[in-house]
Amino acid sequence: MRRFWMRWRGMLWRRGLSEREAAREIEAHLKLMAADLERQGMSPAQAKRRAAIQLGGAEQARAQHRGARGFSGLEAWAREARQGARSLLRAKTFTLAAVATLGIGIGATTAIYSVVQAVLLDPLNFPQPQQLVSLRLKAPGNAMSAVSGSLPFSESLYVTTSEHNRSFSAMGIWVPDSSVATGAGEPEQVRTVLVSDGVLEALGVPPRLGRWLNAGDQTPHAPDAVMLSYDFWRQHYGGAADVVGQKLLLDNVARPIAGVMPAGFKLASAEFDVLVPLALDRSKLILAGFGYYGIGRLRPGVSVAAADQDMGQLLERWMDSWTNGPGSDPHFYTRWRITPAFEPLKAQVVGGMAAALWAVLGTIGLVLLMACVNVMNLFLARAESRRRELAVRAALGAGTGRIVRAVLAESFWLAVAGGAAGLGVAYGALKLLGALVPASMARLGEVGLDGRSVLVCAGLAAGCALACGLAPGLQFARRPVGLAALSCERTGTAGKAQRRRRDLLIGAQVALALVLLFSAGLLLRSFAALQSVQLGYASPGTLQTFAVLIRPGLVPHPQLVAAEHAIADRIAAVPGVAAVSFASDVPMLQEGHDWDEIYSEHGTLLPAGALPMRLYNHIAPGYFAAMGIPLEAGRDLSWTDLQQNRPVVVVSAALAREAWGSPQAAVGKRVREFPHQPWFEIVGVAGDVRMDGPQKPATPMVYWPPEPANDTPLIGQALYVVRSKRAGSRAFVAELGRAVHGVNGNLAVAKARTMGDLGARELAVTSFAMVMLALAGGMALLLGVVGIYGVIAYDVARRRREIGIRLALGSGRGAVQGLFVRQALRVALAGGCVGGVAAVPVTLSLRSLLYGVQPLDGPTLAGVVLVLAAAVAAAAYFPALRGSAVSPAETLAAE
Amino acid sequence: MITGMASERMAVLQGTLDLMVLRTLEAMGPLHAYAIASRLQQASSDALKLNQGTLYPALVRLEQQGHIAGAWGRSESNHEARFYSLTRAGARRLEEETRRWRQLAGMMERLLGPVAGEEA
What we know:
Strand order of the largest sheet of chain B: 2-5-4
Oligomer: heterodimer
Structural class of chain A: alpha+beta
Order of helices and strands of chain B: HEHEHEHEEH
Largest sheet of chain B: 3 strands, antiparallel
Largest interface: A-B, 22 and 21 residues
Strand content of chain B: 15-25%
């Protein structure tokens, strides 16, 4: 190989020079000869012609000259490449199989690489993104935080931190919200983000037009300037430059537009239409009110750990500075054990995607490896069957180098075709991915085939070509074929080295397929487990939800619930509606759920040391019926209760059991939200509901009436739940919208989704990983079966004579078939053992995606082994069946 | 049955052309390709069927193996030409090949016997 390389390099180097030299030398030769002939009496013209004939034609001589120098440089490669292309075009089946295999493998890897690059590798779209941190807090002492894994910021905590920290050059808090924009056309619910001072400064993206919201905009009761997103600006103002200074009517308040953010700007991961200043009123702040995301930009040289420590020291100061009202203990939060757990903003944006994506990339890489192995195998088999041809070529003087080159030239074309096919597959796969997994997965909108993806694709193709072509090429370089070798090759059984190679290929394919199928099987079982989890309410596909936002001022307070009730009545009249009601919270709400304290008059509501924190919801009568949540004891709230202002409440079964032992025992007991509130009597106990989808357990919950006996309307945004077979259809949603407008033309309908949509979004990452792994596993199985089939079929063809002898000696056809099947299974068993060991780290890394099944689940493994064994046996049986159908007399006579 | 002048002339036995070139260069000193070809024709009394073009592969091969060395110069008729001369390695190779050729020739001679070739 080394000699081969040096020669070829030498050729390239010397080629131009030697070609000129040769021409010059032949020219000289002709002149000398002509001069000689002239001396013998010929005319100059005659002499010249004669000399040319004698030399055998200058061109021919030059070619001989060249030939003597061995193969010559690029020209020979080009010739070889042309010949390779021709020979591939002749072997259509081989070429098609190889290109398709490579194309799928390369394409899938390129597609997933593009996703990984956009989601995980590319920095966030902010200046110096590595300085940005998400201000995440943990509070293991708080039951709700312990479940969700984090504690949001409170307003007062933000004020203390932003004033006294030494870690951040800018920091702030933000929370997504929604408002109704009125103006020209129908009122529209818009996505807003409330931002404190410091958020835009921390992110550092300059506005496209106008200015950022600044400290002046944050004073309460100021003119309240807002900023627009690029898309909102384009859609509602046609991209007009004079938008700055105009007024936007937001929740019936005219607000001046301060500026427009550039295209593609998101607040961390949140998309929005309008940015609204939070405008905190410091005189009204209390310790509590944990509902904000925090973001900060680290000063240069400050680490995340140092910022954590800095923040930890400020917590005491925060508790010293604020209170939750007279008589409350400000150091109560010590028991929550609040600790900062800041993380790079990217970690927050990417979330649970990282593990899934790496796992998918790894598995797809394995599939590519299998594809390569398969194509290599095809090559080897093809080269074996061309041994005769190659041996003849070698005997006629083609050097080993030429044969290696011939194989490499073919693999070169396969790489070109496979790479091109791969680009097509990647393009299609990304389009499909974009359609299947909507924007709910972070940063997926940024995925595309760019220059780097194409480069990766080309690199993969080149690597595959080398891997596929070099192995058979080297085999010939090491073991040159001679005519002598042919005679025994023709009839003999496979040599030991060949058999070992073939066994290695089968084993490797089985090992890879096992790893992939096992992973896919685990995810499949997780998905099935998640699907079969009882959520506690009616079939999600039949539950239509949408939001109606009624901002203060639009409807006077006392009539608020009545207006919402009127909307529900109108909706009940829409054809196909089985039940309707509304609440302040519904399961699987992306914004999260509210929780607060709850005190009980009698009973041990709380185990010692625990804190009285429970989820709460404000519901209208009929909510349980509309949602399909069963009542385990007592009754639902009624409109009569509300009209008479009766202090009544419903709790969840989990809460009832926790506090009073059973749902029945809870009825008649009294609870309240704040220490100085009147007591509320429990009239009913509702079944438990998994509020955050099947992966999170059902949490204890309190269902208060819409306005629990004080004058603050608690439902600013009513979430309607409509149970109907028509849920999800566009026409149905339009009819619901008309019903709402029939009550008040200024109301907007937003976030129309079915509970099923919400659930699918919740499972997006799991189902993405599952679909990808299942696809990868399926491809692996297919490639493995095809590969094994090919190997065994080839083996059978080679051993025709041996089979003939066995049959002639009285062996049954079944025994001969069994021979091949047993041989394949034996090798597969060894491969399966290797795969089983290799699967351990792989499935352990999938742990975060699994639900209701252990990473090393025995039954799944057993199932996969059975499927694989059946596939291997089938892949070996069919070629063996065909092979054993030979007539022994015929086979032996053929020799 | 085709007979003629050409068939009377001997084709160059494979492997012997190198030996002939080396021997010529040893005997005559540096020569250009045309002179080598002329000398070979002359030495064999024109019995050798040598396409002058086939000389080049042999020259290139010998030069690549380092047995001869080529250099540009002027012929006696003042034509530009490439002159080949024997290297030390070439001299050794010549010695070796000559011995081997003599062995083979002697063996052939003994094998074929005194009367072989006298027939007809």
